[in-house]
Amino acid sequence: MVNDSQHCTVCIRECETGHSFCQRRDENGYLKQENRFNAVLVDNLFDKPIMHYRENTKVLSIGSWGCNFRCLGCQNVNLSWSVTGENLGYMDIKPAEIVNMALKNECKGICYTYNEPAILLETVEGIASEARDKGLFNVLVTNSTLTERSVKRISGNIDAVAADIKSMDDDFYYDYCGAEGIPDVAEKILHCIRSFYNTGCHVEVRTNIIPGLNESEETYRGIAAWIRDNLGYNTPWHITRFFPANKLNHINQTAAESMLKAQKIGFDEGLKFVHVYLDKGCDCAKKSCLVNQEEVPETGSGHCCCNN
Predict the structure, then answer these.
(1) pLDDT of 239-253, one tens digit each?
(2) Which residues, other chains included, contact 218 with Cβ-Cβ below 8 Å and sequence gap of 6+?
(3) For burial by CB atoms within 10 Å, which of 34, 157, 191, 210 has the most?
(4) Residue 51: which domain range?
(5) Is omega for the bond preceding 244 within 30 degrees of 0, making it cis?
(6) CATH number of 259's domain
(7) Does residue 232 belong to any structural domain of this protein?
(8) Over the stretch 104-161, which tens digit does the pLDDT of each residue have?
(9) Exposure of 201 by Cβ count < 10 A (0-12 exposed, 13-18 middle, 19+ buried)?
């Protein structure tokens, strides 16, 4: 999706046509391998985590390759950092086939996850529309980097969004998420989340706490206050645990005390629902696998502790 100035308008990077950071756009700005998937798995809505949209139910989680970030602690680096996807197992599956796979496995919804779905706008749009026609709901698990134009384009078929706020600080995104080249990145991320909320999508916020990097009281209070003031005190905040991975393999997993401190601050700031997960990292950390259309393995739900 390209505008008149020949810059991509899909995500907040707004790359010049022919210079796609995510490597998913061709020289004319069109999405490459639109219906190619590297990860397909049946799991549960609460695993996303989306816990306040409806009852827990099975969803078909699907992912492809590529990302518009380069998070140093990425726990699914093979998918997210891939620049071709060709070194990974994959299947080319049309939207109708994805929907039929979900129905066959008694799923009630489809979740776009594992790699960053913000870069796959046309893919999400095509499947989500087909899914809605068949009575399935749609969940977007995202790093919150869609432009407002992209949000408006797909929000009519998106029912729930698990939206990351990694920090309130641009420098964190630049230093640890590979977000260089995106001016005012934190504000643009917050604007994306607020845009989804304003369209009527159900929004739940996630923050993965990394020891020594984004676990300060200032960060906790800033995120909680922003959620309260922009999304309402009923909007859930999910606090997940960092596990050593990728280029941050030298950092220990997050201490429970730090996560519980964030939860307390969230409640102090007026949030009604603040969930802490001692055994869950970001959603993409879950082991994903490529499967055929006849057999899709199912995982169990993650355990959520200290829910209020």
Answers:
(1) 999 999 999 999 999
(2) none
(3) 210
(4) 36-285
(5) no
(6) 3.20.20.70
(7) yes
(8) 999 999 999 999 999 999 999 999 999 999 999 999 999 999 999 999 999 999 999 9
(9) buried
